[in-house]
Amino acid sequence: MRLRGTAWVTAGMLLAVAIGCTGGGNEGATETSPASPRATSEGPLATPSATPTPADPVSLPALMQRKHTGSGLRLGAVLDRTPAYTRYAVTYEANGLTISGIMNIPEGKGPFPALVLAHGYIDPDVYFSGQGMPREQDRLARSGYVVLHTDYRNHARSDDDPGNDVGLRLGYTEDVIGAALALRDSGRPEIDGDRIGLFGRSMGGGVVYNTLVVAPGLFDAAVVYAPVSARPEENIDHFQRPDGDPLVAEIEEKHGTPEENPAFWRAVSPLTYVDRVTEPLLIQHGTADDTCPLTWSRQVAAAFEKAGKDVELRTHAGEGHTFGPRWPASMDITEAFFARHLR
User: Fold this and answer.
1) How much of the chain is helix, strand and coil, in % rounded to 5?
2) What is the fold of 7-342?
3) Rounded CA gap, 184 and 203, in Å?
4) Predicted pLDDT at 343
5) Which residues of 276-287 are buried (b: 16+ CB within 10 A; e: fewer)?
């Protein structure tokens, strides 16, 4: 489905969905499954299976039920000019908040396909606009993509959202959805609003998973690198609890532990709603990643495969979390993937 307006209403407003599952995979293997049918304007975005119950406001069903808006893409100062592209400071509106970021616009006639980039975790207190994924921003713009790297709320020049951390940072998903809608609504001749992909790494990979289940059909394809777990409680146990992060106590006081409130934790995991996904997904992960275990990506790939979705897992022997020697080859794979689905 291709929308040119500023609003996005998912099928979750009317229907709920079934619970997904996970499984394993083989070391170093490339795992694929047949492509699932894409959403069209003639049919629903997903095939839910049950009558909805009122959604906890902190949940993926609540985001599914929300009328998302994204508009007002504004190019600000020129940050850099290269022979291949111009880099701008930008802002856009997402569900009532102003979100900052950077945009690289290729030289040439256009219109160019666009990519929304969702960066990994960087402490908002030290983050500066466009800090995440600099290699990807540069390379993809040189390859002829408009690149919109979102800063997320609470970062750089974006508006504040004080409850976002206790709300498991689900607001970042809204910011990514808003970015795509703002691109479609921009009216800029350089941007092809009918060809938009999504690319996230680490924490941004989790944002990508959420976006695919909340707004199926909004993007044409998605790529994740070294993604976090698709189960938020696993991320808390892996990243926050060992460091004594006081946010953990706040989260569990408000929402309960997985043992005390399993329904809440199911409702914030995209694996619960994987049957909604319509976009092809490419996952790339290093076998030596000691930040985000490879098993997390295997579980997601297995869940997508079991649900009959179009998913491919590429593993890179010896690569760590940030990718080193194999990064150029991994980007060759990424660009070929986007070229198949966006051109």
Assistant:
1) 30, 25, 45
2) Rossmann fold (3.40.50)
3) 25
4) 76
5) bbbbbbbbbbbe
